[in-house]
Amino acid sequence: MLSSARRLCSFAALTLVAAQLAAAPLQKVMLLTGQSSKYHDWTKSAPLMKSYLEKTGLFNVDTVTTPPTGADMAGFAPKFSGYAAVVVVYEGAEWPAATKAEFVDYMKGGGGLVVIHDTDNAFPYWPEWNEMIGVGGWGMKADGSIGARDANWGPKIRWRDGKMVVDATTPGNASHPTRHDFPVVTRDPDHPIMRGLPAEWMHPNDEIYSHLRGPAKNVTVLATALADKAKSPTASGEHEPMLMTITYGAGRVFHTTLGHVGPKDIPPFRPLNCVGFIVTLQRGTEWVATGKVTQAIPADFPTADTVSARN
Ligand SMILES: [Zn+2]
Question: What is the C-alpha to C-alpha distance for residues 61 and 32, in angstroms, rounded to an integer?
Answer without folding.
Answer: 10
